[in-house]
Amino acid sequence: MTKAETKLWVQIRRKQISEQRFLRQFSIGPYVVDFFCPHLNLAVEIDGATHLTDEELAFDKKGSMN
């Protein structure tokens, strides 16, 4: 995990926010989100250095159009 993901995970793991369970690296179709809360149907993506190459930016852009 990146530093930002680690900081967030410390706050949301073990149902620390409103007793909601979060999962790490959850697949949604062809994508993998950093964190997902099934009860709220909430996906959280923490962008960082892993989304800076031309290929990754094009993939992210394509996904945001759907």
What does this structure look like?
The protein has helices at residues 3-12, 54-64; strands at 23-28, 31-37, 42-44. Strand 2 (31-37) and strand 3 (42-44) form a beta hairpin. With 66 residues, the chain is an alpha+beta fold.
Task: Describe the structure concisely for a colleague.
With 66 residues, this protein is an alpha+beta fold.
Order of helices and strands: HEEEH
Strand order of the largest sheet: 1-2-3
Beta strand %: 15-25%
Helix content: 25-40%
Radius of gyration using CA atoms only: 13 Å
How do the helices and strands line up, and which of them pair or pack?
Elements (H helix, E strand, L loop, with lengths): L2 H10 L10 E6 L2 E7 L4 E3 L9 H11 L2
Antiparallel strand pairs: 1-2, 2-3
Keyword list:
alpha+beta; 66 residues; 2 helices
